[in-house]
Amino acid sequence: MAEMDVGARRVLELGAEQVPRPFETGSPQRARADYDATCPTLQGDREAVATIEDRHIDGPNGAITLRVYRGIGAPERNGPGLLYLHGGGWVIGNLESHDEICRWFANRAACTVICPDYRLAPEHRFPEGLTDCVASLAFMASSAADLGLDPSRLAVAGDSAGGNLAAVLALMSGAGQVPPIAAQLLLYPNTDAAQTAESYRRFSTGFGLTAATMQWFRDHYIRDAADIADWRVSPLRAERLEGAPPAFIAIAGLDILADEGVAYADRLRTHGVPVVLRHWTDQIHGFVSMGRYIPAARQAVEEAVAAWHGFEQGDG
């Protein structure tokens, strides 16, 4: 086992000081309040972008708020677009909690990033949040000209539960169920709701996200146990993965989700999907949202963008 990064260790110390109670000991509302209170102390710099605005679209479940970032240097016409889906176990997280990551992607990729405030569980269980993400992607494709986007250059990205949603959209794209996606950029994604990977045992406690908390998140998201086997909850369990867009997958080495992220990369490769797999062996789950203390946060975004550009050029 790799030694933990000093910045990651500091983050865990701060977490113990600021929020000593685990999420699963209280309500989703309290978890959201605790999470929202700590995010600003961990996030990296919110660098300036060319423009930022909130828009509202209609989805099957009702109105969805989208935050639209145009990066510095992004083309005004026919540029690349990225749908970013925030993490938070499908229960917590919002437009503010991942604002700095969206800004980094927008500037590093010189692209337009759209981040939807998708519905959260348990008030809105699977598949409602996913449906909001599908509607957001459809908006990007149908409004590409208005947004200055090339509809053939749309990618999806996300971290943790957001990585789960991004992976599912990518599979749906490969099956022709949603508009075409050119790349998927997954940061320590959740790919198997069964939660039986060996990394759940190795890192069950003491590394930030615990096995108990992850079970609490999952049980709020799914409607019943049958949903665990649904590939739209557990993309690792999808029968067919061929046709999915090229993938960049970032793995935090000290993370209960590490093994299922690697397993997903292996399955994608087996089905002929190009994959760039990158390990940060000394990092904990969620490190890309901890840029104030962890320099690797920005590095992960930069490597994801480099992989995306490589896929566009036919590399990988």
UniProtKB/TrEMBL annotation:
The active site is at S160. Keywords: Hydrolase. One of its GO terms (molecular function) is hydrolase activity. Residues 82-288 form the Alpha/beta hydrolase fold-3 domain. InterPro entries: AB_hydrolase_3, AB_hydrolase_fold, GDXG_lipolytic_enzyme, Lipase_GDXG_HIS_AS, Lipase_GDXG_put_SER_AS. Belongs to the 'GDXG' lipolytic enzyme family. This is Lipase. The lineage of its organism: Bacteria, Pseudomonadati, Pseudomonadota, Alphaproteobacteria, Hyphomicrobiales.
